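Case study: Alpha/beta hydrolase fold-3 domain-containing protein.
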Amino acid sequence: MPWAVRLQLRALEAGVDATQRRDGTVNRFLFSLVVDRQAPANPARPDALGTEPSPRPVIVYFHGGGFTYFSAATRPYDALCGTICRETGAVVVSVSYRLAPEHRFPAAYDDGEAALRHLATIGLPAEIPFRADLARCFLAGDSAGANIAHHVAQRWTAAATPPPIRLAGLLLLAAYFGGEDRTESELALEGVAPIVNLRRSDFWWKAFLPEGADRNHPAAHVTGEAGPELELPEAFPPAMVVVGGLDPLQDYGRQYAAMLRRKGKEVRVVEFPDAVHAFYFFPVLPDTGKLVAEIKAFVGSIGPEPIA
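Here is what the predicted structure looks like once written out:
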């Protein structure tokens, strides 16, 4: 891993640790000063993508950050979503949601649903020069955002949601799920892997979950080993699950994929053996380009489908 990337990861860790208070709150002002650089609004039209009449798929993206940090305007997320937009040709809608601990479960899931309802009823802003195919709507996210994407997909497909939105697929990058029992990868990579360790992860779950809940709460533990089997609606979409071999969360990603298979759902697991958590923040890493290519292939493999 390049030294510049190592230094940026260490700086991110230091910023997170410095802003986590002992009472479970977050010093957001300090975090905004030392870590969370925001991308400025860009009024330029993306004319380079062309204005051909065929409608484009839509990717609704939920950022990560342990439910407690970042926004859609955070520079690495703005850059990642821009890259996905250019490479896939999709319209990417990046969602900012309410953060914990000020807004605990289920606020982030409610906001995700609200974003879909807004798309269904209002649509895209008039200045967007493309037509969007809402029957090819993908939910995507990384880390806590992948958790949100899963739960929003479960809610949306369980409800009698009207057209025009049809969920065509899920894109889950380094998904943040949990449980009271520590996984082998959590224990093996403790103190070795960057960003995610047991102390930080426990802080984030405590900030997000209801008061008094443990990590076997259904928001965190979705694979059924510590509770009732998860019910997935028939319309729950195919999924692509991205796993990093140096990410402590990797076992949860594989358990999630295995659960989907048990439920008869389509799932594709994409493994990057040398990837750490949040590797996609860094365009210089070869795995980031490979990931975007995998996303492009997955989105392109799911064509439009008429809605009855």
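For the exam, be able to explain this: The longest helix spans residues 3-19.
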